[in-house]
Specification:
Layout (H helix, E strand, L loop, with lengths): L1 H14 L3 H6 L1 E4 L3 H13 L3 E5 L5 H9 L3 E4 L4 H15 L2 E2 L6 H17 L5 E5 L4 H13 L4 E7 L4 H8 L22 H7 L5 E5 L1 H15 L5 H11 L13
Parallel strand pairs: 1-2, 1-4, 2-3, 5-6, 6-7
């Protein structure tokens, strides 16, 4: 689900670019999924893509981005340093910086998942969504609540980077330290401003889960669904297995 949402947002954003910007291209800072999505669809749409990836980015994802023909720059100790460098390059080269979880078109593209959920699954009681920068839950919540206000929207994040919970308590996005987590795709130290403004009024509940439950969820998905799911995608199931959502017992959730 997590990688799929990144794809939708990236493609929609690229398609919405003015023609002159499509020729110049875009740039992003990402350790993995957002970079992969932009690079893949950039190649297909023939739009130049530059991605700045941190030194800790998975080697497989760095190589995959290069195979998609993107200009890949590995620089910076964390995503924050990558972002600063990417923004400088954007200004110097006339590239559009695309935030992977806060650009309005990214949110809109990810929101199409919400539309498909309610089209394909009848009589839903709740949707349980992994949360990192907040883009996915913002887009999905807006789509779902607009059509079916009674459906509960529940966000789940790793306790090692609970930035959305911190933002809800503070009433605005705040910085939290992102520790190493199996859900590396959710390790965003501060939620997006647009994402938070959209999601905060629509999310009914936000819970955090321990790393042990994320690991168990990955294993359970392999055993039962024969699917290898990364930690970010398995985090929603982790909340259910950990007993964090007792109110959903016997109900339909997605």
């Amino acid at each position: 689900m997590h990688m799929l949402s990144k794809e939708r947002g990236a493609r929609y954003t690229l398609l919405m670019l003015p023609e002159d910007q499509q020729k110049r291209g875009v740039i992003a800072a990402s350790a993995g999924n957002h970079a992969l999505a932009l690079c893949y669809h950039g190649q297909e749409l023939q739009i130049p893509v530059t991605v700045v990836m941190p030194l800790v980015a998975p080697i497989m994802k760095v190589q995959a981005c290069r195979q998609y023909g993107a200009n890949v720059i590995v620089k910076g100790n964390d995503i924050g340093e990558c972002r600063e460098y990417a923004l400088r390059l954007a200004k110097e080269q006339g590239l559009l910086y695309v935030n992977g979880y806060d650009h309005p078109h990214i949110l809109a593209g990810q929101g199409t998942m919400g539309l498909e959920i309610v089209e394909q699954v009848p009589k839903i009681d709740a949707v349980v969504i992994p949360v990192g920068g907040g883009g996915l839950i913002a887009g999905v919540a807006l789509a779902v609540k607009a059509l079916y206000p009674h459906i509960q929207v529940i966000g789940v994040e790793s306790e090692r980077c609970a930035s959305f919970s911190a933002a809800m308590k503070a009433g605005k996005p705040v910085y939290v330290k992102a520790e190493s987590t199996l859900a590396d795709g959710l390790a965003v130290p501060m939620v997006g401003v647009n994402a938070f403004a959209t999601a905060s009024r629509l999310v009914d509940k936000i819970v955090t889960v321990r790393e042990e439950w994320i690991a168990i969820s990955i294993l359970r998905l392999v055993e039962c669904e024969k699917a290898v799911v990364e930690g970010a995608g398995a985090t929603a199931l982790a909340a259910i297995l950990a007993g964090e959502l007792p109110e959903l017992k016997g109900k339909r959730n997605c």
